[in-house]
Design a protein that fits this description.
This protein is an alpha/beta fold and 143 residues long. The chain is built from five helices and five strands, in the order βααβαβαββα. It has helices spanning 19-22, 27-37, 51-61, 80-88, 127-139, and strands at 2-7, 42-47, 67-71, 93-97, 119-122. The protein has a five-stranded parallel sheet, with helices on both faces. The termini are close together. Bound molecules: 1,3,4-trihydroxy-5-OXO-cyclohexanecarboxylic acid (DQA). 1,3,4-trihydroxy-5-OXO-cyclohexanecarboxylic acid (DQA) binds at residues 10, 71, 73-74, 76, 97-99, 101, 108.
């Protein structure tokens, strides 16, 4: 079973970027932990700072993968194009955020994407990604 993790803009700087909000671990280091935790799942990882590349990856994996875990970063709050991409594919998407977007600035409270996703997990740091995989496994019953 294949799961695609997609990280959007500025998430390549996890570990360096605003560590008081996002922690001091790089995503590559966390990914190693996830891979060990789920030996039965093929976890692919893609990060891009470009909206179109995120859309292309959703199209590429969105008809064959079992699930997609998407942290679209700031595009979460702005991107009608990513919303349409999620609506266009058949693979369930779980929206994730490291921080609790509802406890931050008001412009982060609204997600353009959430309505097209299976669900949203926010506020648990890197553990948000593991919880999203658990959601794909148990709630969606697809793995
Ligand atoms: C984020 C929250 C967004 O508001 C922000 O723009 C990010 C990261 C998170 O994971 O907490 O880049 O998606």
């Amino acid at each position: 079973m294949k799961i695609q993790i997609i990280n959007g803009p500025n998430l390549n700087l996890l570990g360096v970027r605003e560590p008081e909000i996002y922690g001091s671990l790089s995503f590559e280091d966390y990914l190693q932990e996830l891979v060990i935790l789920y030996p039965g799942i093929e976890i692919s990882y893609f990060q891009s700072n470009t909206e179109g590349e995120i859309i292309n990856k959703l199209h590429e994996t969105g008809f064959s993968y079992a699930g997609i875990v998407l942290n679209a970063g700031a595009y979460t709050h702005t991107s009608l194009a990513i919303l349409d991409a999620i609506k266009s594919i058949s693979t369930p998407v779980i929206e994730v955020h490291l921080s609790n977007i509802h406890a931050r600035e008001s412009f982060r409270h609204r997600s353009m994407l959430a309505g097209a996703c299976k669900g949203v997990i926010a506020g648990f740091g890197m553990d948000s990604y593991r919880l999203a995989i658990e959601a794909l496994k148990k709630v969606c019953n697809i793995i």
